[in-house]
Design brief:
The protein has about 350 residues and is of the alpha/beta class. Helix content is about 40%, strand content about 15%. Helix 1 packs parallel to helix 14 and helix 10 packs across helix 11. The protein is globular, with a radius of gyration of 20 Å.
């Protein structure tokens, strides 16, 4: 049945655009504080444009581990800023709104993970980066959607994997690594509420409306299986459907030669895709796919963070020490994304 969602939903939910001098003040304050501004691809366009670096979780983690600045202002959600603090414990890490959480990270606690591990002794725990520091501390390896396949493939055959918390990404990884769910790999039943709502019916309607378009699907989306089914049925050519991370979407955007590409992920990603290839029309599969936590990082809160040095992210040193190994192994595995997925923002 076709979706009945309205098409007039506003793509961006945020305060009015800032005054023209806002970006200049942000950059001047950042220079004064010796701060680098990192922004995730799902941030508001105006925040992405003022940042020094924009990218996916893996690219930003790599940058956070290497920047020479005394401070990191992380425009993203809380687990991302925590990851930066884990990697750079001697730096001050600020997040413009400490309440910017993550519905996916909230689906599993450290206590729940400890109980799950007890049910599967000897299994290797692979935690998606979308988790709290406490969960990372209980994990063997971390991953992002960019390198989850490489991370799981690094686990020796015959060793069970506990993959958490996103069930859709886990199913995608199982398909590509050949691991059998319930035997070789066990999936936590978690999901991102934004990607969960991008379901098969929504994708099928978008493809029916634009049969000439290519399709990019984030592996967290509930419609990933439907995308594969559409390709298998011949509804859309198999070479025109890609299930990729946000960093992978940028790579695909740069190579695109079609007139239109349908994008199944949080709508903030469209800004970077459109910048990457102005000759292609990038449309959201679901214009309702807006993460309210990502959009809590508003221009005024970025300015307040720089003016007042708030909100500082703290991670218990003992927890950070236990989590650091899993995060560093995440950074080491998989093809480095570097400048291909982390773009330079506002010049200083």
């Amino acid at each position: 049945m076709a979706t009945t969602r309205p098409t007039s939903f506003p793509v961006w939910i945020h305060e009015d655009d800032p005054a023209p001098e806002w970006a200049d003040e942000v950059r001047a304050l950042a220079r004064q504080r010796d701060a680098v501004i990192l922004a995730h691809n799902y941030q508001l366009p105006v925040v992405q444009d003022v940042a020094d670096h924009v990218g996916d979780s893996l690219a930003l983690a790599r940058i956070a581990a290497q920047v020479p600045n005394a401070e990191i202002v992380f425009c993203g959600v809380h687990f991302m800023a925590e990851t930066a603090k884990i990697l750079s414990p001697d730096k001050r890490v600020l997040i413009p709104d400490a309440a910017a959480g993550c519905s996916l990270a909230a689906t599993i606690s450290a206590d729940q993970l400890r109980a799950w591990k007890a049910e599967h002794p000897g299994a290797v725990v692979v935690a998606y980066v979308n988790t709290t520091a406490e969960v990372k501390a209980e994990s063997d390896l971390c991953c992002t959607s960019s390198n989850a396949v490489d991370v799981v493939a690094s686990v020796p055959d015959g060793t069970a994997v506990l993959f958490l918390p996103d069930r859709h990404l886990g199913a995608h990884v199982a398909r590509l690594t050949g691991r059998v769910v319930g035997r070789d790999i066990h999936l936590w039943d978690g999901q991102c509420h934004v990607h969960e709502d991008i379901g098969g019916e929504v994708l099928e309607q978008a493809v029916a409306d634009h049969p000439e378009a290519d399709v990019l699907v984030h592996p967290e989306c509930a419609c990933a299986t439907s995308a594969l089914a559409l390709a298998a049925s011949g509804t859309i050519g198999a070479d025109r459907v890609r299930i990729v991370s946000t960093g992978g979407m940028l790579d695909e955007a740069r190579r695109a030669t079609v007139d239109r590409v349908l994008v199944a992920t949080e709508v903030g990603m469209l800004h970077q895709l459109r910048r990457a290839n102005a000759g292609v029309r990038f449309d959201p599969v679901d214009p309702w796919a807006v993460c309210p936590y990502m959009k809590m990082i508003t221009p005024s809160r970025v300015l307040t963070a720089l003016r007042e040095g708030r909100d500082e992210v703290q991670v218990d040193p003992a927890v950070a020490a236990r989590a650091r190994g899993a995060v560093e192994r995440m950074i080491a595995l998989g093809s480095p994304t570097g400048p291909k997925t982390a773009t330079t923002g506002g010049a200083r």
